[in-house]
Amino acid sequence: MASPSRSYTAPCPGCGAPVEFRSAQSAFAVCSYCHSAVVRDGETLSRIGKVAELFEDFSPLQLQARGRWHGQGFTLVGRLQYRGGSGAWTEWHMLFDDGRTGWLAEDNGGYVMAQPYVPQHPLPEPRFLRLDSATAIDGHSWRVAATEQAALVAAQGELPKLPPLNQPFPVVELRSTDNEVLSIDWGSQPPQLALGRPVALEELQLTGLREDSAKELKGGRQFNCPHCGATVDVQLAATSKSITCRSCNAIIDLLQGTGGQLAHALQDEPVQPLVPLGASGLLQGVQWQVVGYQHRLGTEPDDPDEHFGWDEYLLYNRQRGFSFLVDTTEGWSLVKTVTGTPVLTAGESCATYLGTVYERQYAYKAQTTYVAGEFYWPVERGQATWNQDYAKGKGLLASEKTAREVTWSIGSQVEADTVAKAFGLDRKLLQRGGDAGPVTPKGTGTGCGCATIIVLVILVIILLVVLKACEDDGWRGGGSGYSSSHPSSSNGGWSSGGSHK
Length: 501
What we know:
The protein has about 500 residues and is mostly beta strands. The chain contains 4 helices and 32 strands. Among the domains are: about 60-210, no CATH class; about 270-425 and about 485-495, no CATH class.
């Protein structure tokens, strides 16, 4: 079905090449030949500058790709690329067959289908929208989930908006208990709003994708590590924003593109993942591949010297996006970020999400201590978050808060046997918590013989005698301890703070 809007084509004021407008709501376009940014005034085009070339994100999406949503066909006609403090992301401008427009935007490793929203009342100023605070827009309750300074870095096709290139402007994301997200950007006046819900690419019945037409995705891309020079293979080319070198363990930032100056950071004390990178397994009816791994360290809020650790595996499925397989001393869990936000009680002791009430189990500080593989956000060693874990039976709900963003994930516990079977591993290697008996620190065995126990008892007695002697001399010892069996982080959260987009 063709769009009811009249298509309009005119020569580019910069080079004379044809520039097409298929939607009457598109006021701007970028010439595909000379990259001139042009503005449409009636049937007259004026050149307003030149737009930088797109950075290659290896997305399977491309202009003129077709899809369906809620029974209505659409075409991707434009593309905006942004960069902020939390990373870079892309928004695709959509033209529906009935003339409506919308956006298909990246959101925490997934996608959101959004449509323009026109507020009926004046909006609060950005400075009043503080992170994690509650607000109301047109009588609807929202929670501020992200505050960011973003800038447009590249554009393509026809667009309803075109903020000035490389000029930072405020972007705020509000999330609701109805699993919705409302984005507000002040890149133009009046501010532009878009109301969206999560969507999986498989729901959109997309055709004309890049790999269908040009076969350009052939297993990723390669470059030399900026630290050691070894070849680094990027397998998850469409979404990776950071990766580690398998030779020297350096963390490499991909946001500038592999043709630019690659930033990197060294890390030592590697931790060995139990589930190997690259492994594929069937969990909850979905085929997942392990693409990233991180070890994280938690700290008791009332005892900064007490630490506990856990592991997170980043899983990827082309149609479902990303999930996290979390390994703690209480067992395994599978969690995924959500678009909405729960309702919290006073003191945040309970959280209600989509009708289910979860009770808070733990609250603690967390940081990333080691990473390996590929990630859809610019991961850094030492990234710190404030975590809260909630539970309802085997159901899990967790939040992570950084200076810019609050993200929530939801999931459920999975048995060690299920994980072992899914990835073809020995269950004894995956023993944790209640379903596997006591867990010892990493690098040690999972059981003790009688002789070992006797030796340990003797050592404990000797240690107690020494400590008693020290106390008699008026000495008091102190220090920090590391607990590998702390019950915290049963959910594990995800992604050490996630990414705005």
